[in-house]
Design brief:
It is a single chain. The protein has two domains: 10-112, NE0471 N-terminal domain-like (2-Layer Sandwich); 125-203, Roll (Ubiquitin-like (UB roll)). The protein has six helices and eleven strands. The chain has helices at residues 36-41, 46-49, 89-97, 99-112, 135-139, 155-165, and strands at residues 10-16, 21-26, 31-35, 63-69, 73-78, 85-88, 125-131, 143-148, 178-182, 185-186, 198-203. Strands 8-7-11-9-10 form a five-stranded mixed sheet. The chain has a three-stranded antiparallel sheet with strand order 1-2-3. A three-stranded antiparallel sheet has the order 4-5-6.
């Protein structure tokens, strides 16, 4: 991965602080979602590259700010104080294209040194669910307090869980049929959920799907 002027040009870059995720789209149509931890442990800064072992303890790291570096790169400042990583557009593109292989090798390296990652935000979460439009009569309520099981950690898994809670409910929460807000902000499927969140489920169409009465 080179940090020289590059052929991959981003068309959109968004930091999702709540989810600790950087999403980036390029002019060839490729788009990637890069976790902050992934970007941190794969920083090309000299002090990271010369460590001789994988960076550890960055499961909950976030990005504090992103600073342009000319026309070809950005400097990413992390909230753990690391601020010397320069990421060219090609670097970010390669990190996205090779994320699965890179991450697998990183986990293997952690295993070899005996380090166990502590996944952040894992565990039960007490949240408030708000229903809108035709979901109110379908669910027979406007809101409810629920405890999400451990496996429900983001918006995508939330919708799957809501669809399984009652017989016949799956069609109500299919992708594209509803949008989700967390603390009054519209979200992406990967948006992380936290204890105490207020979650709104908003239908995208004024017409409810035909379903039997939920059980």
């Amino acid at each position: 991965m080179s940090d020289q002027p590059t052929r991959h040009i981003p068309t959109e870059i968004n930091l999702h602080s709540k989810s600790r995720m950087l999403s980036i789209a390029f002019d060839d149509g490729a788009s990637f979602e890069l976790p902050c931890e992934y970007l941190r442990v794969f920083s090309k800064a000299a002090e990271v590259r010369t460590l001789g072992q994988p960076v550890t303890g960055k499961e909950g790291v976030n990005i504090e700010r992103i600073e342009p570096q000319g026309q070809y790169a950005v400097r990413i400042v992390f909230d753990d104080g690391h601020d010397t990583g320069i990421y060219s557009w090609d670097t970010l593109y390669a990190l996205g294209a090779n994320k699965e292989a890179n991450w697998s090798e990183y986990l293997n390296r952690l295993e070899r040194i005996g380090y166990r990652r502590h996944e952040p935000d894992v565990g039960e979460k007490r949240v408030k669910l708000l229903y809108f439009s035709w979901l109110v009569p379908k669910m027979r309520k406007e809101s409810e307090q629920v405890t999400l099981p451990k496996e429900v950690g983001d918006v995508e898994s939330l919708l799957l869980w809501l669809g399984r809670r009652k017989k016949g409910a799956a069609v109500l929460f299919e992708p594209g049929r509803v949008r989700v807000t967390v603390n009054k902000q519209f979200t992406e499927p990967f948006t992380k959920l936290h204890d105490g969140d207020e979650i709104g489920v908003v239908p995208t169409s004024p017409t409810a799907p035909a379903t039997p009465e939920l059980v």
